[in-house]
Design brief:
It contains 25 helices and 28 strands. It is an alpha+beta fold and 815 residues long. Among the domains are: 187 residues, no CATH class; 255 residues, no CATH class. The chain is globular and about 100 Å long.
Length: 815
């Protein structure tokens, strides 16, 4: 015992000596009485000295450890003020990526370093962990001079330069949006001492940053007082690292969530190095053994007070639907929604906030999250809702049923229907912020998920438009499953939940297999409805005919300019556009799942031949000249002119005209026909048709599809429909010529297209009248002039389609 005690004492002395040698010694800058003179100390997560008179923000960092690190924090940036441009995306309340930030003392400098926790050797011996850490780069983002070192080793540093750097990527965002040349102006950028907020678990700082460009683009010119200089107020948050005890959950691709990827080089041979952790809040029952229990800390979302009534109440109602799912999973009052308290800061990391954001034109909404990159734990949810989106919804509903229904409170009241849409939107974006991805198959299983993009369910009753069931209410069955899996008991219990979902036939299709044109998955689409996409397209065409038949001056409010009719007409004329996309996915479609070995869904299956041919018939019906023509009574109404300052919300939303305000029904026809042609002739879809027919001659092939397409489009039309038909024929020839040259088109598809184009001149001989003969001769001449054909078929020459989304083109959001 005595011998052991002496050895222990000797070892302790030796270890203390080693530690003393390992701890870096820094030459302290000369201490002066003025280092913090005039500054006010605020104590919280770290002491902060705020010096308003000299414009300084001084941070007191702990004594550095053996590696020189004076503290690690989660670091988050956000825009307190935005640009106001939907295409650029620099919106109020937008947040940047979450980083693990370390302040490191190196000599007379303090550097801010983003650590790289994606690559690791978890639980391995120190040497292995060090090897993994040293193999991959960190990012040093700032260095500042040490102002003072106190006797207890603390370091005082002015972080103004850290706060004024472009930490959220403003310049890159502007460049990617075509607003090139903007650079940070140091002389016009400064940290704001008056905005410092200090709390026990987070510090909040702000800086004004100004960016300059000699070549501002159209978005900035449309918004900024001086487009050559644009200023943002940027929030920087230092957040205490989450306490130990959070248990990461391994991501399952079948469960509809987001994940954080790490590479663990300590994984045993035979196990995957790449691991994904499901993103989720820390939610713990007070009684873990109980089937139903209150929680230690509920998830609370706050609605921005900037949202006016009745919008604010609709946002509260819709977001609160999620409590239904948490309650079904056994969490009592675990999810709550309130209005943000008066004076509370929506960017404060302690609050999960549904932000109401104004922009110059309508745009996407987003569900954002602050996520610990080490574990996938969600620390803060931040929803961004575009304020103009609901105005676009109202515009569509006024076009469908008439503006006279506004304020009536009935089932066709555009205001009430738009509020119903807002409830669904609030639930959808909050769903992203609590960990859930899009499920674009929800619409095929009777509104199974609020994480789908819902088309308004427009019905016909006695030949009239009916909006009484436009949007669903409450959370869906898929959403209840995902909450139970993500937040409920893990392990074998979680696996049983997934098996039950698979056995029930719940569908899940997310962005990568739903958004691109030509994707194979038949059940994942945006803004569609119903269990049979082709049958629903046929139904929607009937609804569209009724809507166009009723459309007119009644869509306008009293005193509204008649020119606005043109804007309201575009979404009604293109009412079928998204159901058309959904139906097209049946053609050459392949049903597959995000399967895991043993779940019984390992093999994919082509859409049955009969279903593909039914979809093709429904799609070809949209090309009938009678469907594409604009009624004569409307054509006369749609040419009213605007006066006054140009309104970008108007100019980007309408069809190209025949000069000035004059509506061009043939442009509208060409645009609508182009939607069908683009979807049918997508290179990937055509390639699958070739292969499916090769493997099973009973399947629809590319040749059969092209023949039916040619027969439909070149069926003669007479009278006022003749010119519509000729316009669509020209568009088809140009699309085919472009597809034949597309390097993404397979050789077999190019051959099939080439054969049809080669045979077309023989088909074009003759003509019903002089105009038809002239048109056919022009097409023959065009087919004989490859250079001219190539030039005219360039995609840039196609008439521009008025924007659809949002209601949605473009979210990954989209989130």
């Amino acid at each position: 015992m005595v011998r052991s005690g002496l050895l222990a004492a000797a070892s302790a002395a030796a270890m203390a000596a080693c530690l003393a040698l390992a701890t870096p010694a820094f030459a302290a800058p000369e201490k002066t009485a003025s280092a913090t003179a005039g500054a006010v100390r605020q104590d919280g997560l770290l002491p902060v000295y705020v010096d308003n008179s000299r414009g300084r923000i001084l941070l007191s960092l702990p004594a550095p450890d053996a590696q020189g690190v004076s503290g690690r924090f989660l670091y988050v940036t956000a825009l307190k003020t935005g640009l106001g441009s939907a295409p650029v995306g620099l919106d109020r309340a937008r947040i940047g990526d979450t980083q693990v930030l370390a302040f490191r003392r190196i000599g007379r400098k303090v550097v801010a370093e983003f650590e790289n926790h994606r690559f690791r050797a978890a639980g391995a011996p120190d040497a292995e962990q060090a090897a993994a850490r040293e193999a991959f780069s960190v990012s040093t983002v700032w260095a500042g001079d040490v102002i003072e070192t106190t006797p207890d080793g603390r370091t005082l540093v002015d972080i103004g330069g850290f706060l004024t750097r472009d930490g959220i990527g403003v310049a890159d965002a502007l460049k990617q949006a075509g607003e090139a040349g903007y650079k940070l102006v140091p002389d016009l950028s400064l940290a704001d001492p008056g905005a410092v907020k200090v709390f026990p678990e987070n510090l909040e700082f702000e800086a004004r940053q100004t960016y300059a460009s000699d070549t501002p683009g159209p978005e900035v010119r449309n918004i900024a007082p001086d487009p050559k200089l644009i200023t943002f107020e940027v929030r920087h948050s230092l957040v205490k690292l989450p306490e130990p005890g959070y248990e990461p959950r391994v991501f399952d691709p079948r469960t509809g969530g987001f994940s954080t990827m790490v590479l663990d080089y300590a994984a045993p041979l035979g196990e995957e190095i790449v691991q994904r952790y499901a993103n989720r809040f820390r939610l713990e029952k007070t009684d873990p053994a109980a089937a139903r229990s209150p929680v230690k800390k509920p998830i609370v979302f706050y609605v921005d007070r900037a949202a006016p009534e009745p919008i604010r109440s609709a946002l509260v109602d819709g977001a609160a639907w999620w409590n239904q799912a948490f309650d079904a999973a056994g969490f009592v009052d675990a999810f709550q929604v309130k209005v943000l308290p008066e004076g509370a800061d929506p960017l404060d990391v302690r609050y999960n906030v549904i932000n109401w954001v104004d922009r110059a034109t309508r745009g996407w909404s987003y569900g954002q999250a602050v996520v610990d990159p080490r574990t996938g734990e969600i620390v803060k949810g931040s929803v961004l809702l575009g304020a103009l989106r609901v105005r676009q919804d109202m515009l569509i509903f006024e076009g469908l049923v008439g503006a006279h229904h506004n304020g009536t409170g009935g089932p066709n009241d555009p205001i009430q229907v738009s509020l119903a849409r807002l409830r669904q939107l609030s639930a959808h974006e909050v769903g992203h912020s609590i960990g859930f991805a899009h499920n674009f198959a929800g619409s095929t299983q009777d509104r199974a998920s609020v994480m789908d993009y819902p088309a308004p369910r427009v019905l016909l009753k006695d030949g009239r438009i009916d909006l009484s069931d436009a949007y669903g209410v409450d959370i869906g069955g898929w959403d209840k499953f995902t909450v139970d899996w993500l937040y409920g008991e893990g392990g074998e219990s979680a696996q049983r939940k997934v098996k039950a979902s698979v056995d029930q036939g719940q569908r899940y299709v997310t962005d990568v297999d739903a958004r691109p044109m030509g994707v194979a998955q038949p059940w994942g689409s945006l803004w569609d409805d119903g269990p049979d996409p082709a049958a629903e397209l046929t139904r929607m065409m009937a609804v569209r005919r009724a809507a166009l038949g009723q459309f007119g001056l009644g869509a306008l409010k009293p005193g509204e300019p008649v020119a606005n009719l043109k804007r309201k007409y575009a979404p009604i004329y293109l009412l079928h556009r998204y159901q058309l996309e959904a139906a097209s996915k049946l053609v050459g479609g392949v049903d597959f799942a995000y399967a895991v070995i043993g779940d019984g869904r390992e093999t994919s299956h082509p859409v049955p031949a009969a279903q593909q041919r039914a979809a093709l018939s429904a799609l070809l019906a949209t090309l009938a000249p009678g469907e594409l023509d604009t009624p004569e009574t409307l054509t006369a109404m749609l040419s009213s002119a605007q006066s006054g300052d140009p309104d970008r919300q108007y100019t980007i939303e309408v069809f190209a005209t025949a000069g000035g305000p004059v509506f061009d029904p043939l442009v509208a026809a060409e645009v609508a026909a182009g939607l069908t042609l683009d979807n049918l002739l997508a290179p990937d879809r055509m390639a699958r048709l070739v292969d499916q027919h090769r493997r099973d001659p009973a399947q629809l092939g590319a040749g059969e599809m092209l023949d039916q397409l040619m027969d439909t489009v070149f069926t003669p039309a007479t009278g006022r429909l003749g010119e519509v038909s000729r316009r669509v024929q020209t568009r088809l020839v140009l699309n085919l010529a472009n597809a034949a040259r597309d390097p993404k088109v397979s050789p077999a598809v190019a051959a099939e297209i080439g054969a049809r184009l080669a045979a077309l001149p023989a088909r074009l001989k003759g003509g019903a009248d002089a105009a038809d003969r002239a048109h056919r001769q022009r097409l023959i001449a065009l087919l004989g002039d490859p250079a001219l054909l190539a030039d005219l078929s360039a995609p840039r020459l196609k008439p521009q389609t008025p924007p659809g989304m949002p209601i949605g083109d473009g979210d990954f959001g989209g989130r």
